[in-house]
Specification:
The structure is a single chain. By secondary structure, this protein is mainly alpha-helical. It is built from ten helices and two strands. A two-stranded antiparallel sheet has the order 1-2. A hairpin with a 5-residue loop joins strand 1 and strand 2. The radius of gyration is 33 Å and the shape is elongated. The termini are far apart.
Length: 203
């Protein structure tokens, strides 16, 4: 009902609204009815991307990521999409390794250059190759995330392992290849070896 307020603050009804049309609640005569079936709703819902909360829960449940890491990845949808492409295209690399790189060197570059992940110059394949170099022990994380990463950003088309070799950043982890070098050094330093054996390790 519509009320009238008197000067003394009291109010009283002046007329009643009884029907829907009193409130203008009636179908628009010029618009046809719009009906959506349950199947149509399900089809549309199936095409919608997962919400950030759903992605976060999935990362924690399926990938065993911490709540902190999952929250960081789901702050922005393009960043989350980038992460999912990495783990889907490169299942041999641990998801946590991708998290470390995305939240570390990659995020730092994005912040410094005021860019979004879509503008990151390295493809997902290139970033995965860089990470794999570290995972296989061919290059240390500090060397890869520092000098190699910075140089690669300038020359994103170059072969990563070749670039690491040019920069002298590759590590030799094959003992068979370094044993001859060790033997040569030990022979040249035979006197020092004998001193070490008899307890003069400080010499």
């Amino acid at each position: 009902s519509s009320d009238l307020v008197a000067a003394d603050g009291s109010s009283f009804p002046i007329r009643n609204k009884e029907e829907a049309n009193d409130y203008r609640y009636f179908p628009e005569p010029d618009l046809p009815p719009f009906r959506i079936s349950e199947e149509q709703l399900k089809a549309v819902a199936a095409q919608l991307p997962r919400l950030p909360e759903q992605r976060m829960a999935a990362y924690m449940r399926e990938l065993q990521l911490s709540e902190y890491d999952a929250a960081l990845l789901t702050e922005e949808r393009p960043f989350s999409d980038h992460f999912e492409k990495l783990i889907n295209d490169h299942p041999s690399i641990r998801p946590k390794s991708f998290v470390n790189w995305l939240s570390g060197p990659v995020k730092e570059w994005l912040n410094e250059n005021e860019k979004e992940i879509d503008a990151f110059p390295l493809s997902t394949d290139q970033l995965a190759a860089l990470i794999e170099l570290v995972e296989k022990g061919r290059c240390s994380f500090s060397a890869a995330s520092g000098k190699l990463f910075q140089e690669l950003l300038k020359r994103p088309e170059v072969n990563i392992e070749k670039l690491a070799g040019e920069l002298n950043l590759l590590q030799v982890s094959d003992t068979a290849s370094i044993e001859p070098v060790i033997d040569t050094v030990l022979k040249k330093m035979a006197g020092k070896v004998e001193e070490y054996k008899i307890g003069r390790a400080h010499v």
